[in-house]
User: Fold this.
Amino acid sequence: MHADRPPRRTVAVLAGLSCLFLPLLAQIPKATAASDTRGTGAGAPPAEAAGPGSMAAAPYEYLGWGNPQKPTEVMAATGVKWFTLAFLLSDGTCNPKWDGDRALTGGSDQAAIDSIRAAGGDIVVSAGGWSGNKLGEKCSSAAALAGAYQKVIDAYHLKALDIDIEDTEFSKAAVRQRVVDALKIVKTKNPGIVTYVTMGTTPTGPDADGKDLIERGAAAGLDNDGWVIMPFDFGGHSGTMGTATVSALDGLKAAVKSAYHYSDDAAYRHIGVSSMNGRTDESDETVTTTDFRTILGYAQQHHIARYAFWSVNRDRACGSGGDADACSGVSQSPYDFTKIVVQYKG
Assistant:
């Protein structure tokens, strides 16, 4: 993607403004163990970055377009420790690059990651999104796709990987299966790594493709840490966006429980949410800080796997001439939404 071709969820802002990662129980200890198995070479994350619960609150930041804030400034202002950095895409082949065209290492993205870790934080890397060439489609087999994911894991000694599966990568059954099978390989080769699969949703939970993806995961024996929904761009909903999100999460929990035969408690601990702050690309959707507090209450009650949102870039009020993915479209102080999400401890 390029500056003139905004990423997934930027489209949401273009239309919507008119002017769019207890501890984690088994997950977090596993993530800490992962750092022990991958050594302490250059770029390795600091051990303290995997503190209890911190990975559960990792808002997205997109560094490749617009006017992103410096992650270390966000950390100092909000106390957030983890970020989900987006997006890894295909360079046209089965090879990952930032936005499909920036080198995986050695550039500004790695410099940002190094600064986060030097400040005591860490990252989840997200592959996918709405726009651009998807690795799930450009890699012809699960083994090849797992190899592409492995390049990213090795480059950054990752403790966590997010697959934001959207558009044609999500709508094709063969690609959904490929992603599931690739993640199972990744889990086998990287003991302790945390994986999230993030997808769109209806107000009552995952649609048919989403349920199929979860069922394929269960059938394959994929021990995915978090099935995550993006509760916006509904195309119609009732009530507040907070209540619509709770309804969608309840539907997700039911789908995960059914597919994996989990207990209620285990099902909740394997679901997550990635909301959007402020106005979306739907005229009837504005996600407020009150809605974020509603989501926080649900997360705290049920100890879900993940509470993230798109995005840190948008967590500020709009000014004249602000680009389309640089502000929320609502009246707010800087980082009002991040300061709510960071309260979640898992």
About this structure: The mean pLDDT is 87.
